[in-house]
Amino acid sequence: MAVLAAVPAVVAVAVDAAAGREHLMPVISIRDLVKTYHVGEVTVRALRGADIDVEAGEFVAVTGPSGSGKSTLMHILGCLDRPTSGTYILDGKDVSRMSKDDLALIRNRKIGFVFQGFNLLSRTTALDNVELPMLYNGAEKLKAAERHKRAMEALTAVGLGERFHHFPNQLSGGQQQRVAIARALVTRPTILLADEPTGNLDTRTSIEVMDIFQRLNVERGITVLLITHEMDIAEYGTRLVRFRDGKIQLDQKIAHRRDAAKELAALPPPEPDVPVPSDDVPAEHLGGVV
Which CATH number fits domain 13-285: 3.40.50.1000, 3.40.50.2000, 3.90.1150.10, 3.40.50.300? Predict the structure, then answer.
């Protein structure tokens, strides 16, 4: 697999006047975040006052049982939804009350999404799937040649440079997830949000996907927030945040981080890839678009 090109990480720095030291400003900061849904006559409190800071370059694994609030948190952090109350500061800007149009611009410029279900267009090649987010980026009109170049770079970065012309049904599940990761990368985001990205994958393929995330985090300085039910997958991160009943129950550094590259090197050779079916999905479910 190709080595990811190094991109200088841009981080905010503040000066501690008392100590005379520099320290990183959080790229994500939420305070007393509350999200309430009304389903008929039932009120669902998905988030009940969450507080968290994430510094640029962190790899945060968010875990918790179903209904604990972790996916709701990701939707808010990804600017797909707005909180009922509380504040969300992204790169120094309060996005808690931004309009839908402003949130769409933030999503397309700063955030890449990777979902469990791949969400690829089945009648579209890997290259065209990866180019899609750039077609929705109204702020940056790219010519076809530049879109093609960026898409090829993203596919090469995830090891699929030679399969750019394949359709999803000609790719294995792991390869489809790599296409989804490339699509999330093509707009050059500083943050990647991944919701159960290994949920549909076998053990080896899951490790391969986590190797890509770890390299993106280490080599490009991309901030990664990973939602997962699986503790063994969470251990690839640098920090563990556990949700329960809409609140953060645990927030700690991961003492013994798993190294996906070393684990892959110790595994026997992989079996041949088997293509899996892929269905068309609406554009709003594509990583990094709309």
Answer: 3.40.50.300
